[in-house]
Amino acid sequence: MRYIAIFSFLIAIFSTTSIKAEESTPCPKDAICSHGLSIFGTPDYPVNFPHFAYVNPQAPKDGDIKLSSIGSFDSLNSFILKGVPADGISSIYDSLLHQSKDEPFAAYGLLAQRVILAKDRSWVQFELRPEAHWHDKTPITAHDVVFTFNVLRTKGHPFYRTYYNDVSSVEAINNQTVKFSFSTNTNRELPLVLGQMKILSKAWYTSHDFTKTSLTPQMGSGPYKIDALDAGKWIRYTRVDDYWAKDLPVNKGQYNFNSITYDYYRDGNVAFEAFKAGEFDFRMENISKNWATGYNFPALKDGRIVKEEIYHQIPTGMQGFVMNSRLSKFSNPNVRKALGYAFDFEWTNKQLFYNAYTRTESYFSNSDYAHTRQIGEGERALLKPFRNQLPAEVFTTKYNAPKTSGSGNDRTNLRIAKKLLQEAGWKITNGELIHSESGEKMTFEFLLASPSFERVVGPFIMNLKKLGINATMRTVDSAQYIKRTEEFDFDIIVSSFGQSNSPGNEQKNYWHSSTANQKGSRNLAGISHPAIDSLVDAVTNAKTRKDLTTATRALDRVLCYGYYVIPNWHVRSFRISYNSQLKHPELLPKYDLGFMGWWIDKANNTPENK
Questions:
Q1: Are 164 and 1 contacting, i.e. CB atoms less than 8 angstroms apart?
Q2: Which member of 30, 96, 207, 518 has the greatest number of CB atoms within 10 A?
């Protein structure tokens, strides 16, 4: 769930017209039965579809691949707050549903062969496939699902308590059917949220403590299992040859590598040098300087490495300098706004990034959910109750990040920043910015997880110095960075808030006051505002795509004008390089790289045969 990334990430809005009932088994009169559920309208893939369009069902299952990770790991338990889990660990588990990567949001049965949704949306049932089993060949039952839900919500990462808050009860109807009842029927994404849940073995955890970090391989049911590891250095997963679900439509053409090894490196610079030396096989490039000037090494020139840019339609979300508003020095919006005027993006983009990036000016950038120049009447109606608690600009003007000439010495913006700081009670005395009432000096630290950001923060600090601010930066290893951010032990960090094609439940974890002081939440800025709470609820409870768009745009406006983040930048493509034996389908999904649909072709080692 740590990005989950990413992620992740993963929302659905249901409609009674979006679900095509299976004809093989009678469907209850008070429910709708489904083979697949979609965010908008009818799912693209019908009952009994052969495979996803973005995979190669004839892809060979062969070869071993090495990937890179940064930092270290000390746990194989990714479901609790403690420890740093190993990368790739989710591949050992199956979920109830499997997400399609070429639809805004749709999911199809994996462990569940059918979903039964109450017409009034007060409950949902998942019917499990009778052939589903764990790696030890014991069957997966509804009791495993019940155990998983309960242990995640009571003992798991705090994220789960927020994510599953609207579930009132769970019960095993029989060995193959599990029922979730809801405390509300307005959270239209909840059945899909439950479908994403990775299912754990109840039997395995009778002899293992779920609450502790551990390097003991867990019982899984997924396409891979843990083969070997050296704690903190590397971990290898091997493909399960007799994987129970390998022939299901959702899995055809995927999970083609015999083994996947993650090698850990101290930082990104070390990892890049290792890649150039052939130590691992695939790299996602997130440093524009490397992309522009660093790929002139022999392996690329002679064709052993392929360099490729793949455009996508994924919402780019928000990356930025996140200020901890729990701290008194960042509690005033004018202070946060002022600091944004000291960051010279135009100079940074030209001098450091080869003009590769676009400035981010929305928390939902690259999507229809980003607020527009003209505020809509629906947005006004949602915002009206909070008019006296919001800046006037929310109702009149689209947010635009401060702009400069790119000279690196923009005095106009620094004068604006100085005025804003004075309005907030801060004045420069003997070259130092001091609060006129408390006497507090404006000092803070940028906490970084990668040395590559030091060249960005350094010039920023120089500009802050002109305002009398004593700012420093500290780069720490990934384990320390994760721990400090989970406990909100920082002044300013660089972080990102990924968005899906259907914002929903995860917004509460990002912005709602109930998560502002919940350790481990993604509410890193410490946001606690009644208008934002109301708008998050409006997003979660939206009944139509129009309602969702309206609520999200209103939320976006308020977040931008709260100045919780100094926006960074984004790019609308995957910048990748990889071993030329790696191949991918000609058609890739719109909303993901689809890496688990790639394969190794040992017979043809030419870059042209992708």
A1: no
A2: 96
Model pTM score: 0.85
CB 56 within 8 A of CB 585: yes
Enumerate the CATH 3.40.190.10 domain ranges in the chain, comma separated.
16-56+73-206
Helix, strand or coil, per DSSP, at residue 532: helix
pLDDT at residue 502 in the model: 87
- Are 303 and 547 a contacting pair, CB within 8 Å? no
Dihedral of the alpha carbons of 13, 4, 256, 237, in degrees to the nearest 10: -140
Q: Which amino acid is at 473?
A: M
291 DSSP 8-state letter: I
How far apart are the C-alpha atoms of 353 and 469, rounded to whole Å? 26
User: For the domain 16-56+73-206, what is the CATH superfamily, name and number?
Assistant: Periplasmic binding protein-like II (3.40.190.10)
Rg (CA), the chain: 25
For CATH 3.10.105.10, list the domain ranges present in the chain. 318-410+486-570
Indicate the CATH number for domain 318-410+486-570: 3.10.105.10
pLDDT tens digit sequence for 164-222: 999 999 999 999 999 999 999 888 889 989 999 999 999 999 999 999 999 999 999 99
Location of structure tokens 């050296």: 230
Token representation of residue 239: 């493909």
Q: What is the pLDDT of residues 431-489, one digit of tens each?
A: 999 999 999 999 999 999 989 899 999 999 999 999 999 999 999 998 899 999 999 99
Q: How far apart are CA 499 and CA 556, in angstroms?
A: 12
* β-bridge partners, 260: 65, 237
Q: Are 64 and 261 in contact (CB under 8 A)?
A: yes
pLDDT for the residue numbered 14: 32
Q: Is the CB of residue 360 less than 8 Å from the CB of residue 319? A: yes
What is the rounded CA–CA span in Å between residue 405 and residue 410?
7
**Angle CA(561)–CA(570)–CA(162) in degrees, nearest 5?**
60
Residue 348: which residues within 8 A CB-CB, separation 6 or more? 456, 459
Tens digits of per-residue pLDDT, 41-99? 678 899 999 999 999 999 999 999 999 999 999 999 999 999 999 999 999 999 999 99
3-state secondary structure of 323: strand
Give CA 180 to chain center in angstroms.
25
Say how many C-beta atoms besides its own lie within 10 A of residue 109's C-beta.
25
Q: Name residues whose C-beta falls within 8 Å of residue 464's C-beta, 6 or more positions apart in sequence.
A: 339, 342, 471
Task: Give the CA angle between residues 326, 331, 336 to the nearest 5°.
Answer: 115
- Judge contact between 553 and 523, C-beta under 8 A: no
Q: What is the helix (H) or strand (E) element at residue 162, kind and residue range? A: helix 158-163
Pairing of strands 443-448, 470-475: parallel
Structure tokens at 610: 């992708």
